[in-house]
Amino acid sequence: MNISIVGTGYVGLVSGACLAETGAIVNCIDVNQSKIDNLNNGIMPIYEPGLEDIVKRNVLKERLFFKTKLAEVVNDSDAIFIAVGTPPDEDGSADLKYVVGVAREIGQNLLKYTVVVTKSTVPVGTAKKVKAAIQDELDKRGVKVEFDVASNPEFLKEGNAVDDFLKPDRIVVGVESEMAEKVLKRLYKPFVLNNHPIIIMDITSSEMTKYAANSMLATKISFINDIANLCEIVGADINLVRKGIGSDSRIGHKFLYPGVGYGGSCFPKDVQALIKTATEYGYDLKVLRAVEEVNQYQKTVLFSKIYTHFDGNLKDKTIAIWGLSFKPETDDMREAPSLVLIKSLLANGAVVSVYDPIAMDEAKHTLGDSVKYCNDMNEALIGADALAVVTEWSEFRLPNFKVMERLMNNKVLFDGRNIFDQEQINEFGFKYYSIGRKELN
Fold first, then answer.
1. Angle CA 125–130–132, to nearest 5
2. Does position 91 have pLDDT exceeding 90, yes or no?
3. Is 374 a catalytic residue?
4. Global pTM?
5. What secondary structure letter does DSSP report for 116?
6. How far, in Å, are 301, 377, 412 from residue 350 at the CA level?
7. What residue ranges define each of the domains in the chain, with the CATH number in brackets?
8. Which of 18, 231, 266, 374 is catalytic?
């Protein structure tokens, strides 16, 4: 099959590479010439484990191509996926100008039957807007060409996106014709040979499924963080509580890890967009409003602990930060909790030294020269009055505490992800703060 994907961001690039891996001929389109040039030279715009290898392999096998002109490939495509950005507007709604813009360009060039698929995360009703935009351009040209619009939301986890695409839990497809269903079932057949289901539904339900799924996961995170905060007050241990409730098969253990809040490109934006959609239809999503409120508060928790420890005097105190990306195995810093912490520290006169295994270049774009960038985790500790762990990268889990003791001015550790054993920390004489656990010292 011949597939075109418009947009070479996180979703578009992973989707294109993985579809090419099954033998499809895939054209990835992006208006950013420098990004396309880099991709053609094997330079990835994002960090994602396994992505670079799969891209290079399929480019070499001439199954994956990167171009800037959608018009050149429209009529060579059995399906065209729209995977451009949908950034949030000031009111929280998704900005669909790029999605509709692609639809119009398709309508300006379409000559044969094609399935146009929304792959971007888009609110309910977007497929109708895409269909209307294509039809409007066809009418302007005075031509009649059959086409279908479908919805195929992605459920990729950053840091595990390639495996998620190749071995999906489920594939959700929203269609309004048997022809569109046939095309997409054929495309995704290689991914369901191990009994992973293709769930066929109407387009509106498909669009809602994506937002509902991310909002449910965000809800679990905010719930466990809210309970963790209460655990600290009453003297309970959130790790034990988490195990106790997670053992219930109706609840499960996943996404029940307390910390400093969720970030990234999906959860914050999707929760806000779903709240906005509900408002437009005259309904108030009270639970999701609370989810968002808890998450915003949770991003401030680590700073509050640091501020209290130093009696409100952070001027000229050096705080080391381990972990900048919003989660491990990605360089994505969008809505990252680390940014909230660093901004608060700097505003209160602290000196901040930072280290992240992958996200340092991205951090420089975001933070400029406001912090000290370090080459490794130990360099960040030199002269530090305290260490704050914000992202739970694997290399942070078993540090050399004797080296830490030698490098730091004060043995104070703020664990924003509960990755350390409290008793072991105490053995080395560190003052230790975590999330939702009572202090042992």
1. 95
2. no
3. no
4. 0.90
5. E
6. 17, 19, 15
7. 2-201 (3.40.50.720), 211-297 (1.10.1040.10), 299-433 (3.40.50.720)
8. 266
